[in-house]
Amino acid sequence: xGEMEELRKEMENLKDQITAARKTFQDTTLQEAxxxxxxxxxxxxxxxxxxxxxxxxxxxxxxxxxSTLCVSASQDGKLIVWDSITTNKVxxxxxxxxxxxxxxxxxxxxxxxxxxxxxxxxxxxxxxxDGNVKVMRELAAHTGYLSCCRFLSDTExxxxxxxxxxxxxxxxxxxxxxxxxxxxxxxxxxxVSPDFKFFISGACDFTAKLWDIREAQCRQTFSGHESDxxxxxxxxxxxxxxxxxxxxxxxxxxxxxxxxxxTYQDSSIMCGVTSLAASKSGRLLLAGHDDFNVNIWDMLKxxxxxxxxxxxxxxxxxxxxxxxxxxxxxSWDSFLKIWN
Amino acid sequence: xxxxxxxxxxxxxxxxxxxxGVAIRTVKSFLSKIPSVVSGADIVQWLMKNLTxxxxxxxxxxxxxxxxxxxxxxxxxxxxxxxxxxxxxRFQSPYFWPSNCWEPExxxxxxxxxxxxxxNKARLELADYEAENLARLxxxxxxxxxxxxxxxxxxxxxxxxxxxxxxKILDSQERAFWDVHRPVPGCVNTxxxxxxxxxxxxxxxxxxxxxxxxxxxxxxxxSPVHISSxxxxxxxxxxxQKEISFLNVQLDRHCMKVSKVADSLMSYTxxxxxYDPFVSPTEPSNPWIGxxxxxxxxxxxxxxxxxxxxxxxxxxxxxxxxxxxRDQFLKFLESEFSSxxxxxxxxxxxLKRRPLQEVSxxxxxxxxxxxxxxxxxxxxLDSHSYERTSQNLKDPGRYSYEDAQxxxxxxxxxxxxARFLRSNIYQDLLSARKKQPADTEQGRRxxxxxxxxxxxxxxxxxxxxxLMQSS
Lengths: 340, 471
Prior knowledge:
The complex is a heterodimer.
Chain A: H1 2-24, H2 30-33, E1 47-51, E2 58-63, E3 69-74, E4 78-83, E5 88-94, E6 100-105, E7 111-116, E8 120-125, E9 134-140, E10 146-151, E11 156-161, E12 165-170, E13 175-181, E14 187-192, E15 198-203, E16 208-212, E17 217-222, E18 229-234, E19 240-245, E20 250-254, E21 259-264, E22 273-278, E23 284-289, E24 293-298, E25 303-309, E26 315-320, E27 327-331, E28 336-339
Antiparallel strand pairs in A: 1-28, 2-3, 3-4, 4-5, 6-7, 7-8, 8-9, 10-11, 11-12, 12-13, 14-15, 15-16, 16-17, 18-19, 19-20, 20-21, 22-23, 23-24, 24-25, 26-27, 27-28
Chain B: H1 2-15, E1 25-28, E2 33-39, H2 40-50, H3 56-68, E3 72-74, E4 88-91, H4 106-118, H5 128-140, H6 145-160, H7 164-181, H8 237-252, H9 258-273, H10 294-300, H11 306-312, H12 316-321, H13 323-335, H14 340-352, H15 356-371, H16 383-392, H17 402-414, H18 416-422, H19 424-430, H20 447-455, H21 459-470
Antiparallel strand pairs in B: 1-2, 2-4, 3-4
């Protein structure tokens, strides 16, 4: 197919031109620029609480906006809402499908969502009139597993799926409002910008994409990883994107420079990154790995400043509470730990 | 898979004695010789030296990772971890490497355990958990046990033909293989895969090859996670064309220099470092230690402390994030009689969270209040945004006011926000100046107050100002 060949050549040519153009704007590296910044010193966080109750691998967790409540999803078929200070279970929601892969807490605190191999995103109302937690909506349209979901509000949620697309749903009507297609591989993770106008997705095509929620368009694509991107998040000011991949590295991409600023890697870290979270100021990056540890990086200087070793199996999810006071890790060992 | 390649690279190097690998030797044990072993300490040392690892705990962690996947194993233990001492380890044969996508069936495991019981060697005695496994398998495979037994016998015959030293090594490697695929209870099964990645693995059809050459009888059911759904998408002509137009847009994009964005990131982190509990100590105390929740009470209170007030000065976004900040800014704007902008902004934020059935009517209300001709809280929009917005309202939705909101936000940012930061309201809070009853905000000096002040801080004065404050 001669035409396809030509198109591909044109595509590669453009990519090369863009790379060259970006290089001319690389008048320094973040590390160099940050060489004068005071070092952060060794960061030692201790386990303050262990949340016990799940009976199988924990695949996902998400903090509520109030800084003490969080929700976790496990392959034992349960969604548990925890009061992480008392370690009490506020709700233990049995799921129809035990193959759950993601969960989310609405900013209002009224709803939680989850999904997985059932290809659906199920929304549960925590504040139902009679006190029982019931399924409020089942959002079904994806043709692949649900890898991640995040609420914009009580009325809208964004999901990412193994069918290579992300979708914005209207929860009330249970319908798809927008479909974000473009990735060439399973979408594994998504993150919403602090101003709720954009979201980013990381996929198994080794790229991360920035999407404009209103226009349903991909605004920017970032590549460089050598394997699946499993985790993605915004830098707290919303101007940069952090990704974590099976290639055992994390990368920081800046939106306004439209290029990679730094790669966080170490030859002794060989296992893929499963999850990541930034500390409140953005100075620290916490990355959970398949080798059961969480590595803590100084994001500006790209130096490892700490390790959280407390789980007996891979760390599958991590989150920093909204006030930045605590970090929660969830693992295949069925426990969640709170650190600070 | 990537991990396996990395480990294999290390394991190959570590065994290459000519290139600085560890010394693999035969150790004389009390009745016999132990071929082809190396001590845990040697491995740890090699890792530290060759992978430039400074922290010994990290080297041990890495070594244990390599062991957990079965690439190295202790010769006298089923538990696959690396110890930094004289414990003897052996390297796994590449035949058994996990990168070969082994998924051994229970029939293979049964043959293996059965074979072990046939050989009269102390070192091959079954551990308790293995004996239990064998008993379980005997029950499960009751109907085909004769077949399994015969296969085990065949394996024993094959093994007997091998050289004694070679057999010792092969037996231990085989055992290590099973330690990975049928781990000791309580140990992590490193062959477990993330279900999201299962169907894309190198061996998508999970061709089951037997460790002992047993033909697949086709009775094994694929587990639910291994059902392969659609194959990975191949880009079409349209995909490539879309990509090309996207790339053209990217080529024309106006970007910022790295130095500039780096500065921006650095100043953000610097500004917020004191608010980051992982980096700076928190006042009053860490609520996660002990039962003191005063930190949260302070954060939630409507009476903000200096540190919180300082944050409002970082950006308008920060000020509006904090409910107390919103209140103070609103109060300030009211004093200037220009609160309609912020009230519009807040109303639009609220609109975005409304249930669908309320959106239309609420959008209309906002129009009436802020934008219609003769609106009571008329805001100043440029004609372009005004046109766009009135167009949007023909089919009102949650985001009909997006453009207008952005415009008003920019206005507030460049105009009233700057004045707010210079205002007495803000400055007083920032310097935590104690509020004197008579020392209220400059803009609100009414004639009555001026009168009472001139009379002096008398009884009447206090009573009257008290009344005004509560309004």
